[in-house]
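Aim 2 progress update. The chain analyzed this quarter is reproduced below.
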Amino acid sequence: MKRKITTITLVMFALLLMTQIVFAEVTAPTSLNKVTSSRRDLSALPDQQQAVIAGNVTQLSLDVLTTTKSWAGAYGNISGTITLDNSNNDTFYNWTGITADGEIYASRVDINDFSSVQCATETDKETEDAALNNDASASDNVNKTFATKNAPDFNVGTVSITGSNCYHTNAFNSGGAQTADFHQVLLDDGSNNMIYTTLINGSKTGFDGNAWDFEMLLAEDGHGNSATTNYYFWVELN
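Predicted C-alpha cells:
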C-alpha cells in the first residue's frame, strides 16, 4: 500500500514589511518634574564704602552684579525608553538605558505641528523682545543674547536645519563661556512662535561642575512682573 504524501504549504503572515524611512519624532516627554530651583542671593554681597573728603572730586569705578530680568534657565538629565509599539500602545519590545542625544524644544505656545519649523529671523527676535518687555538696548535681551549664526546642523523630525542660518549661543560650563557643548538655537514654528532649542549633550560638565545632558535658556518677562511663565516642552531623541 502506497502512503499518500500530502505537501502542506505553511503561509506565514508574520511581518510583511512595507519599506519606509523612519525619522526621529518630536514628542512630549512622558513626565516632567521640577527637582529644584534657585537663584543667586544678592543680599549676601558685602556692603562697600569709600572715604571722601571735602574739597575733593573722586573718581569711582564700580563693578555691579545683578540678576537678569529677561531669562530663566533649565538643566538636567534625560532618562527614557525606546519602544516598539502598535497603535494600541501594546509593546512588542523596548530598550532602556538610552544614550541622550538629540534636541529639547520649549515654547510658550502649544505647538502641534513641527513640519514648518525654520530658523528664527531678526524680526522674530525683535518681536520676542517686544513681547517680553525687553529694552532694545539691553545687553541681555533676546536679540543680543542670540547674536550670531553658528549652530551645528540638526534635524527637527523630517526638517533639516542648517545651523549656519540659525541664531545661536552656548550655555556655560563650570569654566564659564564655551562653544563646544549646550548649543542654544532659536527656531520659529512657521507661524511666528519662538521655539527655544537646545542640543542634548549626554553627560557633559555643566555650569555647576556636575554632569548634565542639557542646559537651556528660556526667555521670561521679569520686568516688574512676579508672575510665572508656562513653557511647553518636547524631546527628540536621535
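Helices lie at 122-131, 142-145. The chain has one domain: 66-237. These observations will guide the mutagenesis experiments scheduled for the next reporting period.
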